[in-house]
Amino acid sequence: MTLVYLIGGYCVRMGVIQTEGLTKKYGQVTALDSLTIDVDAGVTGLVGANGAGKSTLIKILLGLLRPTGGRAQVLGMDIAAQSQQIRTAVGYMPEHDCLPPDVRAIDFVVHMARMSGLPAHAARERAADVLRHVGLAEERYRLMGGYSTGMKQRAKLAQALAHDPKLVLLDEPTNGLDPAARDDMLHLVQRIGHDFGIAVLVTSHLLGELERVSDHVVVLDGGRLLRSSATQDFMGDTGMLLVEVLGEGDAQTRMGEALARAGVACRPRGRLIEIDTRGRPPVHDLVRDTAVAEQVGIVRIQADHARIEDIFREEAPHGQPA
């Protein structure tokens, strides 16, 4: 979905975020290198290793850093001339712990809502709503210094949503969370982008997370754009078939050798056997018949799909994902 703005009596379609040649240098270090991207509504994942330029980009979009070169728009507003208006319309969840420990969550979120322009009564109502949405309804009167890491992340998310923004920028929202809390946070991110109708730009160096929740992924490496496309385009069929057999060692070896004798190009891949099916007819029946002949049990047969991390191996000139 692309946002539509009324400019001079005409409807103009434009993305949520647009950058053109955006560059940021710190002395001899280039944090962003001529970055040109176009981000639409929904959930967009911004992925890259630590130091790839993700946080720098977010701070520039919010007007907290000045770019060395290039330009950018957020919600149709220029970052150089309208940074205050951008911050009014955008919610921001920072990566690091920045919550005042001696303040209750409800008071903090109300304060942040009022700082964004909401009147007192509306701010309190909105704060109660967003704290309920992020799962802190029962804990909203506790001092945040006593919160767990997961609760602190939820409180930071709540303040980012307090003023009903059109866009939220989430910087490493799953940082420091255990697997269960990470799943809950990712579910919240997905709800914000799809159920609440708020555009989301979420950063992470954990590649698998963005595959799960993003509609679109922007991959950065060393401050440069490596690739930008729909998430499903990253995860197409590789032409490989993965076979897992019951047992390891001898069973896997016998199965692989038997398939090779039958003219199938295959190789071990951890506990799996990887079969190259490109340019040849389906081999499922052959795999089944070979397993029967070798008296090997099959656990699963599935097509192999690409992952975002494969982009780094194939295209990144320098650096691997963290």
CATH architecture label name of the largest domain:
3-Layer(aba) Sandwich
- CATH homologous superfamily assignment of the largest domain: P-loop containing nucleotide triphosphate hydrolases
Straight-line N-to-C gap:
31 Å
**How many helices?**
11
Based on secondary structure, the structural category is alpha/beta
| Helix proportion | 25-40%
Q: Look up the CATH topology of the largest domain.
A: Rossmann fold
CATH class of the largest domain: Alpha Beta
Q: What is the rounded Rg?
A: 24 Å
How can the largest sheet be summarized? 6 strands, mixed
Query: Count the strands?
Result: 16
Number of domains: 2
List keywords for this structure.
disordered C terminus, 322 residues, disordered N terminus, 11 helices, alpha/beta, Rossmann fold, elongated, Alpha-Beta Plaits, 2 domains
What does this structure look like?
The protein has 322 residues and is of the alpha/beta class. The protein has two domains: 232 residues, Rossmann fold (3-Layer(aba) Sandwich); 69 residues, Alpha-Beta Plaits, CATH 3.30.70.100. The protein has eleven helices and 16 strands. Strands 8-9-10-5-11-12 form a six-stranded mixed sheet, sandwiched between helices. A four-stranded antiparallel sheet has the order 4-3-6-7, with helices on one face. Strands 14-15-13-16 form a four-stranded antiparallel sheet, covered by helices on one side. α3 crosses α4 and α3 packs parallel to α5. It is elongated and about 75 Å long. The two termini are 31 Å apart. The N terminus and C terminus are likely disordered.
